[in-house]
Amino acid sequence: ELVAQAVHYQSRRSEGPFIRINCGAIPETLIESELFGHQKGSFTDAFETKIGKFEAAHGGTIFLDEVAELTPQLQVKLLRVLQEREITRLGGVKPISVDVRLIAATNKDLHQLIKTGQMREDFYYRLNVFSILLPPLRERQTDICLLAEYFLEKYRVENQRNITKISSAALTLLCNHSWPG
Fold this sequence. Notes:
Structural class: alpha/beta
Strand content: 5-15%
Distance between the termini: 15 Å
Order of helices and strands: HEHEEHEHEEEHHHH
Number of helices: 8
Oligomer: single chain
């Protein structure tokens, strides 16, 4: 998410919205409405028209975290959005143009998901215009000290403490940790 924010805020779209969605945290029955919005009366609890995340991100960036959690059916709909640059709200008939940059992230092997049919190959290639591979922290040992110093300063100021240094023993523990996850 931090990389996606950095891309957004260093681009010509920085004045536009940055909308983030955790695709794995939204139930399958609700995600389409969240992404594309819905018209009043389109389903039982649709008491009013609601814009979706793509409309909200117009002129900016939408970040889909855990994109590999999307069903192949929803991937087809997103593929259409990426190709046509328009969405249709649930229950709607009128297409709505959207101008968004899409950034997607996952921790899964997308090539393996394509082989098992969980990821559509055409959707993968439409998403994969430019890849940024971010290795896990356990593979970036040199970042551990930098991150420790950053968080020390952040929480020192936030908690109004006069702590200026992390002990060597603490840094050694952090560097020797396996950083799973």
